[in-house]
Amino acid sequence: MNIWGVWKLWRKLSPLLKLVKGGRVSKNILRSKIFWANVLTAAVELSGALGGLVPAGALQLTTNVLNILLRLITNQPVTVLPTSTEE
């Protein structure tokens, strides 16, 4: 393989390597604010606890806005599998 072949291979694999490196410093999904906000709103929706209090679709809109706000203040990716750097 010549130098240009190696360069092309590196350019294709570089984004994948960044993804793998980023996975090592990510946090567990159980420590994610967005995950727990979604679990809470899904539980409220499934239980029907707010059935007569809020109009249909209002909880979905609230969940969407909450996800957007939490994503704006979150700067760390999450993983489902535990990482070796967790406490």
Count of distinct structural domains = 1
Ranges with pLDDT <50 over ≥5 residues? Answer: none
Q: Count of DSSP E strands?
A: 2
Task: Give me the secondary-structure category.
Answer: mainly alpha
Question: What is the 3D form?
Answer: elongated
Give the helix tally.
3
Cα separation of the termini:
43 Å
What series of H and E elements makes up the topology? HEHHE
Percent of residues in helices comes to: 55-70%
Radius of gyration: 20 Å
Largest sheet, order of strands side by side? 1-2
Give a concise summary:
The protein has 87 residues and is mainly α. It has three helices and two strands; from the N terminus they run H-E-H-H-E.
Give an overview of the whole structure:
The protein is mostly helical and 87 residues long. It has one domain. The chain is built from three helices and two strands. It has helices at residues 3-24, 33-47, 58-73, and strands spanning 27-28, 78-79. Strands 1-2 form a two-stranded parallel sheet. Helix 2 runs antiparallel to helix 3. The longest helix has 22 residues, at 3-24.
Topology:
Layout: H1 3-24, E1 27-28, H2 33-47, H3 58-73, E2 78-79
Parallel strand pairs: 1-2
Feature tags:
two-stranded parallel ribbon; 87 residues; mainly alpha; 2 strands
